[in-house]
Design goal:
The chain is built from one helix and five strands. By secondary structure, it is α+β, with helices and mostly antiparallel strands. Bound molecules: guanosine-5'-monophosphate and zinc ion (ZN). Guanosine-5'-monophosphate binds next to loops.
């Protein structure tokens, strides 16, 4: 199967550096949801080399600055789904940068703990 992130339309890239690029998620969970993706086809975060990881996280910070300026959210969730069991559907590493807005859900307590919905609120 062809990899969608290896074949992304260059015009959709919003920011990039030597090893990584960022695009808006086509099915955003919130306004400004971005994906930070290595240029190399790496399946899993834990398979990435140190230089790639460094460039991925640098780009996450730059995307955050950009999202602050454009969308002015009050918070963020940052997440990586590693493996099918953890919910990964596109098998090319990507970091989700998800802007959060006061009142976007009734009680945001627990944030990323919501990967197991019943355990989000503790
Ligand atoms: P995963 O579940 O693998 O962590 O996340 C895959 C993400 O890729 C989902 O949030 C989904 O909305 C997004 N996505 C799926 N297809 C495309 C696409 O063609 N372009 C972009 N930009 N995002 C995509
Ligand atoms: Zn790929």
């Amino acid at each position: 199967m062809t990899c969608i992130f290896c074949n992304i339309d260059k015009e959709r890239i919003i920011l990039e550096n030597e090893d990584a690029f960022a695009v808006y998620d086509v099915f955003p969970v919130s306004k400004g949801h971005m994906l930070v993706i290595p240029k190399k086809h790496i399946k899993n975060y834990f398979d990435a080399d140190e230089q790639t990881k460094t460039h991925l996280w640098k780009l996450v910070d730059e995307c955050k600055e950009m999202a602050d300026n454009i969308f002015a959210p009050q918070g963020y969730n940052i997440g990586i789904n590693c493996g099918e069991a953890a919910g990964q559907t596109v098998m090319h590493l990507h970091i989700h940068l998800i802007p959060r807005y006061k009142g976007d859900i009734e009680n945001p307590r627990g944030g990323v703990r919501g990967v197991i919905p019943d355990k989000r609120i503790y």
